Amino acid sequence: MSEEFFDIVNPHDEVIGRALRREVHASGLWHRAIHVLVFDRLGRVFLQKRSMLKDMAPGLWDSSCSGHVDSGEDYDAAATRELGEELGLPEPEAKARERWFRKEACRETGWEFVWVYRLRHEGPFVLHPEEISGGEWLAPDEVTARMARRPEDYAPAFRLLWGIAAQKP
Fold first, then answer.
1. Cα–Cα distance measured from residue 63 to residue 46, given in angstroms and rounded to the nearest whole number
2. Number of domains composing the chain
């Protein structure tokens, strides 16, 4: 398996270099990621349970889809790619996602600048077993209530991003 390269960015999210994934994470370098929240026609959100094979936040609940922006890739392309890789959505369906909000890099995001997208889709999904061990559709209020009861069951970046998303129209 080849190693992934990420663009290293400055405080303005401008590319200033490139490094291997392991170096970026070990050194806490600023880089880029995407999260996609998929909602169905009833307004429920699909949450994924991260595979135990993941190097970060294994076994925790997370956004419907999330991933790093590869070196040379932009946020929109990464969102489309990750929707295909993690949820099995073909490109035309994955491209229906829309940018929702942006979060500056911080400790909770793992020093990632994050664009959060939203997508309306009813499923079913083809979950990538090395990425996702399962998933569940939940009403937004239920996500908030469960997270309040057991925050340790949720990936840190997702906890932060959900707090923002829950306040947005």
1. 8
2. 1
Sequence-separated (6 or more) residues with CB below 8 Å from residue 122: 40, 41
Let me know: does 117 contact 34? Beta carbons within 8 Å.
Answer: yes
Give me the domain span that covers residue 121.
5-165
pLDDT in tens, 62-76: 999 999 999 999 999
Do 75 and 90 contact (CB within 8 A), yes or no?
A: no
Query: Which tens digit of pLDDT belongs to each residue from 131-143?
Result: 999 999 999 999 9
pLDDT in the model for residue 169 = 79
The pLDDT value recorded for residue 2 is: 67
- In sequence order, what DSSP letters do the residues of 112-162 get, joined into one string? EEEEEEEEE--------TTTEEEEEEE-HHHHHHHHHH-GGGB-HHHHHHH
Kindly give, in sequence order, each residue whose CB lies less than 8 Å from that of residue 33, ignoring residues fewer than 6 positions away. Answer: 66, 67, 68, 69, 78, 109, 110, 112, 113, 114, 157
For the chain, residues with pLDDT lower than 50 are 1
Domain of 118, CATH number, reads 3.90.79.10
